[in-house]
Design brief:
mainly alpha; 8 helices
Length: 228
């Protein structure tokens, strides 16, 4: 009777057609070929098993055996040395980066993971981070006084914009759900109700324009309350 292959569950959070997704598929293929089918790597892409914030815990408890996380994910585990890779201007090029990851420093970082029940196998390139601002960023000093945000938008500001847009959609014909609900309650026809909501709709549109082009309007209260 043929022995069942050793199954390795490999989870990651990106799509199959991304560099990481393609590399994972290639790894699974080569693992099967080089072991003569004794090892079977099952790749679960696009968070099909665990989401970004869940997969590290899944690895530690043995629910999956392999991950390909960003290095920043090791910081919350207590191995904050990995966060240095998120700093700008640390490496001039990929050659310098590989000299670190493939050398003694890279091995020391992997050793720190052992205390968390994780074994580091290799460093995968995932591209360099890009920063943009309303002024040139040529040295580390150029970042002083800037509020760095992913995707260039504050999540609170983004959430307020989404909420206002949704509210406008809910009172805009022909698919405005709130418009139909209000019409049923008030016994007014849709035409009459549409005319009645115009002042409110115009107010919302003006407010949307203001918060879109002047983000501090949405961030003033959270900052005043010390929430950010």
């Amino acid at each position: 009777m043929a022995q069942a292959p050793l199954v390795i569950k490999f989870s990651h959070v990106v799509a199959n057609d991304t560099p990481k997704g393609k590399a994972s598929g290639f790894f699974a293929k080569r693992a099967g070929e080089l072991t003569g089918g004794k090892v079977k790597v099952e790749v679960y892409a696009n968070s099909t098993l665990y989401k970004d914030k869940e997969e590290m815990e899944a690895l530690q408890v043995g629910a999956v055996q392999m991950l390909a996380p960003s290095l920043a994910k090791f910081g919350p585990l207590g191995v904050r040395e990995f966060e240095v890779f998120d700093l700008p201007f640390i490496f001039d090029d990929a050659r310098e980066l590989h000299a670190i990851t493939a050398g003694p420093v890279g091995k020391q970082l992997f050793a720190r993971l052992e205390t968390k029940g994780i074994t580091g196998l290799a460093y995968w390139d995932n591209g360099f981070k890009s920063f943009s601002a309303n002024k040139p960023l040529k040295t580390s000093d150029d970042f002083k006084g800037l509020n760095a945000m992913k995707l260039g938008i504050d999540p609170i500001h983004f959430g307020v914009m989404i909420t206002v847009n949704m509210e406008i959609g809910m009172i805009t014909p022909p698919v405005g759900l709130n418009l139909y609900v209000a019409s049923g309650i008030s016994k007014l026809g849709l035409s009459e109700m549409t005319v009645a909501v115009w002042p409110w709709l115009l107010t919302m549109l003006v407010f949307l324009v203001l918060i879109t082009y002047w983000p501090p309007l949405t961030l003033w209260l959270p900052r005043t309350l010390g929430m950010m």
